[in-house]
Amino acid sequence: MAEVTWGLATSHVPSIGAAMDRGKTDDPNWKALFDGYAPARAWLAEHRPDVAIVVYNDHANGIDLDFIPTFGLGTAERYEVADEGFGRRPVPDVLGHPELSFHLVESLVDEGFDLTVFQELAVDHGFTVPLSVWTPDPGDAWPCPVIPLLVNVIQYPQPTAARCYALGQALGRAIRSYPEDLTVGVLGTGGMSHQLAGTRAGFINPDFDSMWMQAIETDPARLAAMSREELIRQAGSEGIELIMWLVMRGAMDERITKVHSDYFVPASNTAAGIALFDNRPPSA
Ligand code: DHB
Ligand code: FE
Question: Which of 48, 103, 160, 283 is the most exposed place for a label (fewest CB within 10 A)?
Answer without folding.
Answer: 283
